[in-house]
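Lay summary. Proteins are chains of building blocks that fold into shapes, and those shapes determine what they do. In this project we predict the shape from the chain. Here is one chain we studied, written as its sequence of building blocks.
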Amino acid sequence: MTDPTSSTTPDVDVLCVGAGFSGLYAAYKAAERGWTFAGFETAPDVGGTWHWNTYPGARCDVESIYYSYSFSEELQQEWTWSERFAPQAEILSYLNHVADRFGLRRHFRFNTRVKGARWLPDEHLWEVTLDSGETRRGRYLLAASGGLSTPKNFDVPGLENFTGLTVSTSRWNISLDDLAGKRVAVIGTGSSGVQCIPLIAEVAGHLTVFQRTPNYVLPARNAPLSADVVDEIKSNYPAIREECWYSPGGIPDRPATDRAFDVSDEERRRRYERAYERSGFLGVGAEFSDLLTDPKANETAAEFVREKIRQTVEDPKTAALLEPRFPLGAKRSCFGTGYYETFNRPNVSLVSLRDEPITTMTSDSVVTESGSYAVDAIVLAIGFDAFTGPLFALDVTTPEAGTLQQAWADGVRTYLGIMTAGFPNFFMIGGPQSPALASNVVVTIEQAVDWIADLIAHAEAKGGDVIEPTTEAQDDWVNITEATVNQTLYATTDSWYRGSNVTGKPTTFLGYVGGVGKYRRMCAEIGKRGYPGVRIGGQAVAPTIGRIDEEIA
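And here is the predicted shape, written in a compact code that computers can read:
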């Protein structure tokens, strides 16, 4: 156990890894509190995931007016979003604007990778080792590396045999024109695949889509934001933000009260049609209160969407392959433009890897159990090692717990998705078992940074410089997250939400799904009660988080 009486002066107060939404706000908050701060970013500039994910069609699936910072009214008034779902380049421009406006770049060293981080118990400091070989020491270590920033390993058999053009959506480094006229294979139909496939189809000589698991793809209904809409938003930002903070998903999503079978078949159909036209996270999957808890209710919504697929895709065999068979919303639904229509093009074909898995590749073809497909270029849209991947890459180590990988060998264990026992003064922003997985992550980021800053200030006021959750409090939070998800259909489906997309990864559900609003109220109450379950300077208030969870509806 760490000696709470020993201390050494650090290089800086706060060390931070990452310069995306999380890292930039952490730098702003540290400066506001008067703390010294050193951030490290692998990329050459700010942006995080929005620096790297430049594939054709890249957009966020949360509307831009909500997927933005709320900490500065001046920022909200001076920035104007152009579309309902702004493209990657515009989101990156926004983050650059934030960095410039608040002078945040000076806090970061770019083109710098953190290779390891170790806790020094005698000094009460974290020491990070950079890829240059240099080390830096700080009192607190913040992981602002993002939940979806570490690409999965390319687990495609025989990929090394292919000699044509290969590109990944997560590290896109070509022009769309480079695919013009070529025979292109896209492997993967998650969000990035759904967004880039229609655009690749427009330029490719022939496009073959290799689908692992069909996803629900709902129409994005993207459109420019009119001046009137922008003016209305800007005049109502305080109310909009308040609604986001206390909503289930971090957007103004007032929870539905009707259950699916409370209304007639005709009324249910009418409401699904209306929601389908509206789309977004307030679409079909949010129309009734029991769609994520009652399989029969969910099937009414899922079949509605499958019917839309059959109506859109002209070839019945292709349509059947595109129909998902898991509950709607149990995996994060995708939002696309012209996705299903793309399969009506004469230059597009679909291969189901469930029916004919890839066995290998040759220099110029993809070989499955049923045939061979000649291709000139391969686009890998196979996703991320979500949430734990970026954290494990930091090689965080303490003498007490070993590496984070070792501590979580049997599954993720956190306190609020922010801290983990055995790793003092280590904080995760939007970490696993927080609401970040199934919500508007920017809301979760701001709330987490604010809570961490308040906790540090509280500890310093008490004269403590070592902060760590107790094992008992962590166990309580793990039990709460598991009990909450087990009440839903999330628990019935394998997905990256559970780490199922990465071979050998423990299948722990990676998020808290009790709602952004409830989580915020719980965190606030924990602060009011003196941070029960958190050991500060060797002393801890008994954990009461289970009782707080029961008290807050």
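What the prediction tells us: The CA atoms of residues 156 and 358 lie 7 Å apart.
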